[in-house]
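Notes from hallway chat w/ T.B., transcribed later so I don't forget. T.B. wanted the structure written out for a chain they're using in a teaching module, and asked if we could keep both sequence and C-alpha coordinates in one place. Agreed to drop them here.
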Amino acid sequence: MHARRWHDFNVYLALGVVVLLGFGLMLVWSTTVGQQAESYHMFINHLKFLAVGLVGLVALTIFDYHNFRPLAKPIYLFALLLLALVTTLGTVRDGARTELFGFQPSEPAKLMLIIALASWWSARAEQRQANSWVTLGGSLALAGVPLVMVLLQPDLGTAMVMGCIWLAMAWSAGMRWFHLLALVVVAIPVGLFGWQHVLKTYQQARLVAFNYTQEQVDHIPDPESKKYVQSVLYQTGHAVIAIGHGGLWGQGLNNGSQSQRNFLPVNYTDFVFATAGEELGFVGSVALLACECFVLWQGVNVASKARDVQGRLLATGVVGMMLTHIVENVGMNLKMLPMTGIPLPFISFGGSFTITALCCIGLLESVAMRRRNLVF
Protein backbone atom coordinates (compact mmCIF):
# COMPACT_ATOMS: atom_id res chain seq x y z
CA MET A 1 0.00 0.00 0.00
CA HIS A 2 1.33 3.43 -0.96
CA ALA A 3 2.37 5.65 1.95
CA ARG A 4 0.20 8.51 0.65
CA ARG A 5 -2.89 6.44 1.48
CA TRP A 6 -2.23 7.09 5.16
CA HIS A 7 -2.95 10.79 4.62
CA ASP A 8 -6.65 9.86 4.45
CA PHE A 9 -6.56 7.68 7.56
CA ASN A 10 -9.50 8.79 9.75
CA VAL A 11 -7.68 9.80 12.94
CA TYR A 12 -10.89 10.98 14.62
CA LEU A 13 -12.53 7.60 14.14
CA ALA A 14 -9.50 5.85 15.62
CA LEU A 15 -9.36 8.24 18.60
CA GLY A 16 -13.06 7.74 19.30
CA VAL A 17 -12.58 3.97 19.35
CA VAL A 18 -9.54 4.29 21.64
CA VAL A 19 -11.55 6.35 24.14
CA LEU A 20 -14.38 3.79 24.05
CA LEU A 21 -11.92 0.95 24.60
CA GLY A 22 -10.66 2.88 27.63
CA PHE A 23 -14.21 3.07 28.98
CA GLY A 24 -14.60 -0.64 28.29
CA LEU A 25 -11.38 -1.59 30.07
CA MET A 26 -12.41 0.36 33.17
CA LEU A 27 -15.85 -1.23 33.32
CA VAL A 28 -14.67 -4.76 32.53
CA TRP A 29 -12.01 -4.40 35.24
CA SER A 30 -14.59 -3.18 37.71
CA THR A 31 -17.09 -5.94 36.96
CA THR A 32 -14.74 -8.91 36.55
CA VAL A 33 -12.07 -8.09 39.12
CA GLY A 34 -13.72 -5.38 41.20
CA GLN A 35 -13.43 -6.11 44.89
CA GLN A 36 -12.14 -9.65 44.23
CA ALA A 37 -8.50 -9.01 43.40
CA GLU A 38 -7.82 -12.71 42.81
CA SER A 39 -10.14 -12.89 39.77
CA TYR A 40 -7.99 -11.69 36.90
CA HIS A 41 -8.58 -14.35 34.26
CA MET A 42 -11.62 -12.70 32.63
CA PHE A 43 -9.88 -9.35 32.40
CA ILE A 44 -6.78 -10.99 30.92
CA ASN A 45 -9.02 -12.76 28.39
CA HIS A 46 -10.56 -9.41 27.48
CA LEU A 47 -7.09 -8.00 26.83
CA LYS A 48 -6.34 -10.97 24.58
CA PHE A 49 -9.56 -10.39 22.63
CA LEU A 50 -8.63 -6.73 22.20
CA ALA A 51 -5.17 -7.69 20.94
CA VAL A 52 -6.62 -10.06 18.33
CA GLY A 53 -9.22 -7.47 17.34
CA LEU A 54 -6.58 -4.76 16.92
CA VAL A 55 -4.55 -7.06 14.67
CA GLY A 56 -7.70 -7.58 12.58
CA LEU A 57 -8.28 -3.82 12.52
CA VAL A 58 -4.79 -3.12 11.19
CA ALA A 59 -5.00 -5.95 8.65
CA LEU A 60 -8.32 -4.75 7.23
CA THR A 61 -7.11 -1.15 7.19
CA ILE A 62 -4.18 -2.16 4.98
CA PHE A 63 -6.31 -4.50 2.85
CA ASP A 64 -7.91 -2.84 -0.19
CA TYR A 65 -11.66 -3.34 0.22
CA HIS A 66 -12.08 -3.62 -3.57
CA ASN A 67 -10.45 -7.05 -3.33
CA PHE A 68 -13.52 -8.29 -1.45
CA ARG A 69 -15.51 -8.36 -4.71
CA PRO A 70 -14.00 -11.63 -6.03
CA LEU A 71 -13.86 -13.04 -2.48
CA ALA A 72 -17.45 -12.20 -1.54
CA LYS A 73 -18.96 -15.54 -2.59
CA PRO A 74 -16.51 -17.79 -0.68
CA ILE A 75 -16.71 -15.46 2.34
CA TYR A 76 -20.51 -15.70 2.33
CA LEU A 77 -20.46 -19.49 1.92
CA PHE A 78 -17.95 -19.77 4.76
CA ALA A 79 -20.31 -17.76 6.98
CA LEU A 80 -23.15 -20.16 6.15
CA LEU A 81 -20.88 -23.12 6.90
CA LEU A 82 -20.02 -21.71 10.33
CA LEU A 83 -23.70 -21.09 11.12
CA ALA A 84 -24.59 -24.61 9.97
CA LEU A 85 -21.88 -26.09 12.20
CA VAL A 86 -23.00 -24.16 15.27
CA THR A 87 -26.62 -25.19 14.64
CA THR A 88 -25.67 -28.87 14.62
CA LEU A 89 -22.54 -29.10 16.80
CA GLY A 90 -22.71 -25.96 18.91
CA THR A 91 -22.91 -25.70 22.68
CA VAL A 92 -26.25 -24.79 24.24
CA ARG A 93 -26.02 -21.74 26.49
CA ASP A 94 -28.98 -19.92 28.03
CA GLY A 95 -31.35 -21.97 25.90
CA ALA A 96 -29.67 -21.15 22.57
CA ARG A 97 -27.09 -23.07 20.53
CA THR A 98 -24.83 -20.12 19.70
CA GLU A 99 -21.28 -21.22 20.56
CA LEU A 100 -18.85 -23.45 18.70
CA PHE A 101 -15.78 -24.29 20.82
CA GLY A 102 -16.27 -21.08 22.82
CA PHE A 103 -16.64 -18.99 19.66
CA GLN A 104 -19.83 -17.33 18.37
CA PRO A 105 -19.90 -17.64 14.55
CA SER A 106 -22.93 -15.36 14.31
CA GLU A 107 -20.75 -12.34 15.21
CA PRO A 108 -18.27 -12.50 12.29
CA ALA A 109 -21.20 -13.63 10.12
CA LYS A 110 -22.56 -10.07 10.44
CA LEU A 111 -19.37 -8.66 8.94
CA MET A 112 -19.33 -11.34 6.24
CA LEU A 113 -22.95 -10.47 5.39
CA ILE A 114 -22.02 -6.81 5.00
CA ILE A 115 -19.21 -7.75 2.59
CA ALA A 116 -21.51 -10.02 0.56
CA LEU A 117 -24.34 -7.47 0.32
CA ALA A 118 -21.98 -4.63 -0.63
CA SER A 119 -20.45 -6.77 -3.38
CA TRP A 120 -23.89 -7.78 -4.70
CA TRP A 121 -25.33 -4.27 -4.81
CA SER A 122 -22.18 -2.69 -6.25
CA ALA A 123 -22.03 -5.29 -9.03
CA ARG A 124 -25.70 -4.67 -9.85
CA ALA A 125 -25.11 -0.90 -9.77
CA GLU A 126 -22.43 -1.26 -12.44
CA GLN A 127 -25.10 -2.92 -14.59
CA ARG A 128 -27.51 -0.06 -13.77
CA GLN A 129 -29.79 -2.54 -11.99
CA ALA A 130 -29.34 -1.33 -8.40
CA ASN A 131 -33.04 -0.49 -7.96
CA SER A 132 -34.59 -3.45 -9.76
CA TRP A 133 -36.85 -6.00 -8.09
CA VAL A 134 -34.33 -8.73 -8.97
CA THR A 135 -31.58 -6.87 -7.12
CA LEU A 136 -33.80 -6.32 -4.11
CA GLY A 137 -34.91 -9.95 -4.09
CA GLY A 138 -31.33 -11.17 -4.40
CA SER A 139 -30.24 -9.03 -1.46
CA LEU A 140 -33.17 -10.32 0.60
CA ALA A 141 -32.13 -13.89 -0.17
CA LEU A 142 -28.52 -13.17 0.77
CA ALA A 143 -29.57 -11.69 4.12
CA GLY A 144 -32.48 -14.07 4.70
CA VAL A 145 -30.53 -17.34 4.68
CA PRO A 146 -28.12 -16.49 7.54
CA LEU A 147 -30.92 -14.66 9.36
CA VAL A 148 -33.10 -17.79 9.39
CA MET A 149 -30.14 -19.94 10.43
CA VAL A 150 -29.51 -17.62 13.39
CA LEU A 151 -33.20 -17.73 14.32
CA LEU A 152 -32.96 -21.52 14.48
CA GLN A 153 -30.33 -21.31 17.23
CA PRO A 154 -32.52 -19.40 18.43
CA ASP A 155 -30.86 -15.97 18.64
CA LEU A 156 -33.45 -13.30 17.98
CA GLY A 157 -31.12 -10.43 18.87
CA THR A 158 -28.50 -11.29 16.24
CA ALA A 159 -31.23 -11.95 13.66
CA MET A 160 -32.63 -8.49 14.38
CA VAL A 161 -29.17 -6.95 13.85
CA MET A 162 -28.83 -8.73 10.50
CA GLY A 163 -32.23 -7.42 9.45
CA CYS A 164 -31.23 -3.87 10.37
CA ILE A 165 -27.95 -4.25 8.48
CA TRP A 166 -29.90 -5.19 5.35
CA LEU A 167 -32.34 -2.30 5.83
CA ALA A 168 -29.56 0.28 6.24
CA MET A 169 -27.69 -0.99 3.19
CA ALA A 170 -30.87 -1.22 1.11
CA TRP A 171 -31.61 2.41 1.93
CA SER A 172 -28.07 3.43 0.99
CA ALA A 173 -28.32 1.43 -2.25
CA GLY A 174 -31.35 3.49 -3.28
CA MET A 175 -34.36 1.42 -2.25
CA ARG A 176 -37.53 3.19 -3.48
CA TRP A 177 -40.60 3.91 -1.39
CA PHE A 178 -42.70 1.36 -3.29
CA HIS A 179 -40.08 -1.31 -2.50
CA LEU A 180 -40.43 -0.48 1.18
CA LEU A 181 -44.22 -0.47 0.95
CA ALA A 182 -44.21 -3.91 -0.68
CA LEU A 183 -41.90 -5.24 2.03
CA VAL A 184 -44.16 -3.92 4.78
CA VAL A 185 -47.21 -5.51 3.14
CA VAL A 186 -45.41 -8.87 3.04
CA ALA A 187 -43.70 -8.53 6.44
CA ILE A 188 -46.88 -7.93 8.46
CA PRO A 189 -48.60 -11.29 7.74
CA VAL A 190 -45.26 -13.14 7.89
CA GLY A 191 -44.51 -11.56 11.26
CA LEU A 192 -47.96 -12.42 12.61
CA PHE A 193 -47.60 -16.01 11.41
CA GLY A 194 -44.18 -16.29 13.04
CA TRP A 195 -45.48 -14.82 16.29
CA GLN A 196 -48.41 -17.23 16.48
CA HIS A 197 -46.94 -20.43 15.02
CA VAL A 198 -43.14 -20.26 15.23
CA LEU A 199 -42.28 -18.54 18.50
CA LYS A 200 -42.94 -20.56 21.62
CA THR A 201 -45.05 -19.10 24.41
CA TYR A 202 -42.06 -18.37 26.64
CA GLN A 203 -40.26 -16.64 23.73
CA GLN A 204 -43.25 -14.39 23.15
CA ALA A 205 -43.38 -13.60 26.85
CA ARG A 206 -39.69 -12.77 26.95
CA LEU A 207 -40.03 -10.26 24.12
CA VAL A 208 -42.81 -8.28 25.80
CA ALA A 209 -41.76 -8.89 29.42
CA PHE A 210 -39.98 -5.53 29.77
CA ASN A 211 -43.37 -3.81 29.61
CA TYR A 212 -45.17 -6.08 32.09
CA THR A 213 -46.54 -4.97 35.45
CA GLN A 214 -46.53 -7.23 38.49
CA GLU A 215 -50.29 -7.66 38.17
CA GLN A 216 -49.89 -8.90 34.60
CA VAL A 217 -47.16 -11.31 35.71
CA ASP A 218 -49.42 -12.76 38.39
CA HIS A 219 -52.05 -13.59 35.75
CA ILE A 220 -49.73 -15.47 33.36
CA PRO A 221 -51.15 -19.02 33.15
CA ASP A 222 -48.12 -20.79 31.67
CA PRO A 223 -45.50 -21.53 34.39
CA GLU A 224 -42.56 -21.53 31.95
CA SER A 225 -43.57 -18.18 30.47
CA LYS A 226 -44.07 -16.76 33.94
CA LYS A 227 -40.57 -17.87 34.94
CA TYR A 228 -39.01 -16.15 31.93
CA VAL A 229 -40.97 -12.95 32.47
CA GLN A 230 -39.94 -12.84 36.13
CA SER A 231 -36.30 -13.39 35.14
CA VAL A 232 -36.41 -10.55 32.60
CA LEU A 233 -38.12 -8.19 35.04
CA TYR A 234 -35.57 -9.04 37.74
CA GLN A 235 -32.64 -8.24 35.44
CA THR A 236 -34.06 -5.10 33.86
CA GLY A 237 -35.41 -3.93 37.22
CA HIS A 238 -31.98 -4.10 38.85
CA ALA A 239 -30.46 -2.40 35.79
CA VAL A 240 -32.78 0.57 36.24
CA ILE A 241 -32.07 0.62 39.99
CA ALA A 242 -28.32 0.62 39.30
CA ILE A 243 -28.60 3.53 36.87
CA GLY A 244 -30.70 5.45 39.39
CA HIS A 245 -28.19 4.80 42.18
CA GLY A 246 -25.44 6.40 40.12
CA GLY A 247 -26.88 9.88 40.37
CA LEU A 248 -24.97 12.67 38.67
CA TRP A 249 -21.37 11.61 39.27
CA GLY A 250 -21.66 7.91 40.11
CA GLN A 251 -20.56 5.80 43.06
CA GLY A 252 -17.07 5.25 41.68
CA LEU A 253 -15.39 2.27 40.04
CA ASN A 254 -15.61 -0.94 42.10
CA ASN A 255 -18.15 0.73 44.40
CA GLY A 256 -21.50 0.05 42.73
CA SER A 257 -23.98 -1.35 45.23
CA GLN A 258 -25.81 -3.32 42.53
CA SER A 259 -22.93 -4.27 40.22
CA GLN A 260 -20.46 -5.26 42.95
CA ARG A 261 -22.88 -7.27 45.09
CA ASN A 262 -24.17 -9.55 42.33
CA PHE A 263 -27.64 -7.97 42.23
CA LEU A 264 -27.05 -6.93 38.61
CA PRO A 265 -26.60 -10.06 36.43
CA VAL A 266 -24.11 -10.25 33.52
CA ASN A 267 -22.94 -6.76 34.46
CA TYR A 268 -19.89 -7.04 32.20
CA THR A 269 -21.79 -7.88 28.99
CA ASP A 270 -25.53 -7.30 28.53
CA PHE A 271 -25.88 -4.85 31.42
CA VAL A 272 -22.54 -3.09 31.26
CA PHE A 273 -24.31 0.21 30.54
CA ALA A 274 -26.18 -0.11 33.84
CA THR A 275 -22.81 -0.60 35.52
CA ALA A 276 -21.57 2.56 33.81
CA GLY A 277 -24.65 4.43 35.02
CA GLU A 278 -24.11 3.30 38.61
CA GLU A 279 -20.34 3.70 38.87
CA LEU A 280 -19.75 6.63 36.48
CA GLY A 281 -23.08 8.38 36.97
CA PHE A 282 -25.15 10.40 34.53
CA VAL A 283 -22.13 12.42 33.42
CA GLY A 284 -20.04 9.33 32.71
CA SER A 285 -22.88 7.56 30.90
CA VAL A 286 -23.57 10.57 28.69
CA ALA A 287 -19.86 10.87 27.92
CA LEU A 288 -19.78 7.19 26.94
CA LEU A 289 -22.81 7.56 24.67
CA ALA A 290 -21.35 10.74 23.19
CA CYS A 291 -18.24 8.78 22.20
CA GLU A 292 -20.39 6.05 20.65
CA CYS A 293 -22.29 8.68 18.66
CA PHE A 294 -19.02 10.31 17.61
CA VAL A 295 -17.78 7.00 16.20
CA LEU A 296 -21.09 6.54 14.36
CA TRP A 297 -20.82 10.07 12.96
CA GLN A 298 -17.33 9.33 11.68
CA GLY A 299 -18.68 6.16 10.08
CA VAL A 300 -21.36 8.18 8.30
CA ASN A 301 -18.65 10.61 7.22
CA VAL A 302 -16.65 7.73 5.73
CA ALA A 303 -19.73 6.48 3.88
CA SER A 304 -20.56 9.92 2.46
CA LYS A 305 -17.02 10.41 1.13
CA ALA A 306 -16.52 6.88 -0.21
CA ARG A 307 -15.11 6.64 -3.71
CA ASP A 308 -17.65 4.16 -5.02
CA VAL A 309 -20.85 2.26 -4.28
CA GLN A 310 -19.06 -0.67 -2.70
CA GLY A 311 -17.21 1.53 -0.21
CA ARG A 312 -20.35 3.47 0.67
CA LEU A 313 -22.32 0.29 1.28
CA LEU A 314 -19.58 -1.31 3.39
CA ALA A 315 -19.45 1.76 5.62
CA THR A 316 -23.24 1.99 5.80
CA GLY A 317 -23.51 -1.66 6.81
CA VAL A 318 -21.00 -1.19 9.62
CA VAL A 319 -22.78 1.94 10.88
CA GLY A 320 -26.15 0.17 10.72
CA MET A 321 -24.79 -2.75 12.74
CA MET A 322 -23.20 -0.52 15.39
CA LEU A 323 -26.27 1.71 15.68
CA THR A 324 -28.55 -1.29 16.21
CA HIS A 325 -26.28 -2.64 18.95
CA ILE A 326 -26.12 0.69 20.75
CA VAL A 327 -29.85 1.44 20.60
CA GLU A 328 -30.90 -2.07 21.64
CA ASN A 329 -28.35 -2.44 24.46
CA VAL A 330 -29.05 0.96 26.00
CA GLY A 331 -32.81 0.56 25.50
CA MET A 332 -32.68 -2.85 27.19
CA ASN A 333 -30.75 -1.40 30.14
CA LEU A 334 -33.31 1.39 30.49
CA LYS A 335 -36.20 -1.11 30.35
CA MET A 336 -37.48 0.44 27.14
CA LEU A 337 -36.75 -2.40 24.69
CA PRO A 338 -36.87 -6.22 24.85
CA MET A 339 -33.98 -8.07 26.47
CA THR A 340 -32.08 -9.70 23.62
CA GLY A 341 -28.52 -10.01 24.93
CA ILE A 342 -27.00 -7.55 22.46
CA PRO A 343 -23.57 -6.26 23.64
CA LEU A 344 -22.50 -2.61 23.66
CA PRO A 345 -19.77 -1.96 21.04
CA PHE A 346 -16.23 -1.57 22.45
CA ILE A 347 -17.54 -1.66 26.03
CA SER A 348 -18.98 -5.11 26.75
CA PHE A 349 -16.81 -8.11 27.57
CA GLY A 350 -16.92 -10.76 24.87
CA GLY A 351 -14.43 -12.27 22.49
CA SER A 352 -16.34 -12.83 19.26
CA PHE A 353 -18.12 -9.48 19.18
CA THR A 354 -15.11 -7.47 20.40
CA ILE A 355 -12.96 -8.89 17.60
CA THR A 356 -15.72 -8.37 15.02
CA ALA A 357 -16.37 -4.77 16.09
CA LEU A 358 -12.69 -3.85 15.81
CA CYS A 359 -12.48 -5.54 12.40
CA CYS A 360 -15.44 -3.40 11.33
CA ILE A 361 -13.46 -0.29 12.25
CA GLY A 362 -10.62 -1.61 10.10
CA LEU A 363 -13.08 -1.94 7.23
CA LEU A 364 -14.18 1.68 7.73
CA GLU A 365 -10.56 2.83 7.69
CA SER A 366 -9.94 0.83 4.51
CA VAL A 367 -12.78 2.72 2.81
CA ALA A 368 -11.63 6.08 4.21
CA MET A 369 -8.04 5.63 3.02
CA ARG A 370 -9.12 4.80 -0.52
CA ARG A 371 -11.66 7.55 -1.04
CA ARG A 372 -9.68 9.08 -3.89
CA ASN A 373 -7.46 7.88 -6.71
CA LEU A 374 -3.76 8.49 -6.34
CA VAL A 375 -2.18 10.41 -9.22
CA PHE A 376 1.53 9.87 -9.78
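Follow-up for T.B.: The mean pLDDT is 89. Might be a good example for the class.
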